[in-house]
Specification:
Blueprint (H helix, E strand, L loop, with lengths): L2 E3 L3 H10 L1 E4 L3 E8 L2 E6 L7 H17 L7 H9 L3 H4 L8 E8 L8 H12 L10
Helix pairs in contact: 2-5
Length: 135
């Protein structure tokens, strides 16, 4: 399934209000069952200046690419784990089958490396490696 970027304020609001929230030391993950694959990375001014925010977003994108969400079957495994009853959690009027993900950087991400961020994201999603197909 082709993935897109979340862009509209209303989409972010829906994910924040109706989605599942997982909080870690380096990042916060919001997940929502949707009709398509959509992702976004966010770093507010609380993280730091423009250079620090850009680094934080690069680390988050790298964690998605190399972590559970970037592997074959990963998004489906995450969706199944957090939304076993897809019809009840899907956005009104849409068919289930996708996953909307918003990753929000926290200040501590600036002292972490890419592998630390990937490991924490995978830990927050709690998907064992054995449930995934090789890429």
């Amino acid at each position: 399934m082709k993935q897109r970027s979340l862009a509209k304020k209303s989409e972010f609001k829906t994910v924040y209000e109706r989605g599942v929230k997982r909080i870690g030391r380096l990042l916060v993950v919001y997940l929502l069952d949707g009709s398509d694959e959509a992702r976004a990375v966010v770093a507010s001014r609380k993280v730091g200046g423009a250079v620090q925010r850009n680094r934080a977003k690069r680390l988050l994108r790298e964690a998605v690419r190399n972590g559970v969400l970037g592997r074959a079957g990963g998004p489906e495994a995450v969706r199944t784990r957090f939304f076993p009853d897809s019809a009840a959690n899907t956005i009104a009027g849409e068919q289930p089958g996708g996953l909307w993900v918003v990753l929000v950087a926290r200040g501590a991400i600036l002292t972490a490396g890419a592998e630390d961020v990937r490991r924490e994201l995978d830990h927050l999603l709690e998907i064992p490696e054995t449930n995934l197909r090789p890429a």
